[in-house]
Write a structure and sequence with these properties.
- The protein is α+β, with helices and mostly antiparallel strands and 256 residues long.
- Helices cover 34% and strands 26% of the residues.
- Strands 1-2-10-7-12-5-3-4 form an eight-stranded antiparallel beta sheet. A four-stranded antiparallel beta sheet has the order 6-11-8-9, with no helix packed on it.
- Helix 3 packs across helix 4, helix 6 crosses helix 7 and helix 7 runs antiparallel to helix 8.
- The two termini are 35 Å apart.
Length: 256
């Protein structure tokens, strides 16, 4: 089944993203969640979840989301946790290993987010700073909304590419891909899954891959590492050190 997904149901977005001048691994996974499972999960989410309006970590606007797994611990309704298990253990983790090389990945977070008229309509372009891998699974029919998830490897709008997701389709990408959401019509609901590189990283909210990549010269890793050192640890000296490194790195992560 892995080979079937990899060879026949998996489309790389490398070509579209490389057109913007940057190389990323990103994969469109058709029917990663079979339609009956997608409908069941969407129905359970609507029935049991309480979509919080607490401030979102990206833009401080009402998040309209609810968690099923947080820091590796099941915290959502038991029926939803059970429904997600085949997707997480049999598809997401093996494919993260096969496609992105994340050999000991851990599902750290799973949440459902809604975009409704007169409520949340967008999620500004950002990096998922605490995830080594992100998987977004559509829980809506394609005809129910316009717009949706996009990738934007550089700050210019010309670089923006919308990801054509149908019900049950998924988009998998690494930590170094800027992305966002903009819904122009209708309503959209999605399952968002964040992986870390290990259970230890998940339980202790660590992101060790940034330091390794930053030392290797990756400007996006330098940028996100500096941001985490400032936001999460208040380490002004280390933050300044990594931002200084960026001055001598081309291209700048803010331009990448």
């Amino acid at each position: 089944e892995m080979e079937d997904h990899k060879l026949h149901r998996c489309t790389t977005w490398g070509a579209a993203i490389k057109a913007a001048g940057i190389d990323h691994d990103a994969y469109l996974l058709r029917e990663l969640l079979p339609r009956p499972e997608a409908i069941t999960i969407a129905d359970l989410a609507m029935e049991h979840l309480h979509f919080s309006t607490s401030p979102d970590s990206v833009d401080n606007r009402p998040a309209h989301e609810d968690y099923i797994i947080a820091r590796g611990q099941e915290c959502g309704p038991a029926s939803l946790v059970r429904a997600l298990q085949p997707l997480l253990s049999e598809r997401v983790l093996p494919m993260a290993s096969e496609l992105l090389g994340i050999r000991s990945g851990q599902v750290c977070t799973a949440l459902v987010r809604r975009y409704l008229p007169q409520a949340r309509r967008m999620h500004p372009a950002h990096f998922d700073a605490h995830a080594i891998c992100t998987v977004v699974v559509s829980l809506s029919e394609a005809h129910q909304f316009k717009g949706g998830l996009y990738v934007q490897p550089s700050p210019t709008l010309r670089a923006r590419r919308y990801v054509p997701l149908k019900l049950g389709d998924a988009f998998m990408h690494g930590y170094d891909l800027r992305h966002g959401v903009r819904v122009t019509e209708g309503a959209r609901m999605s399952l968002v899954i964040w992986l870390k590189d290990s259970l230890v990283s998940c339980q202790n909210d660590l992101s060790p891959w940034y330091r390794e990549a930053a030392i290797a010269g990756c400007p996006i890793a330098m940028y996100n590492l500096a941001l985490q050192l400032f936001r999460d640890h208040g380490d002004h000296a280390a933050t300044a050190e990594w931002y200084t490194c960026l001055l001598y790195t081309s291209p700048s992560p803010r331009d990448s």
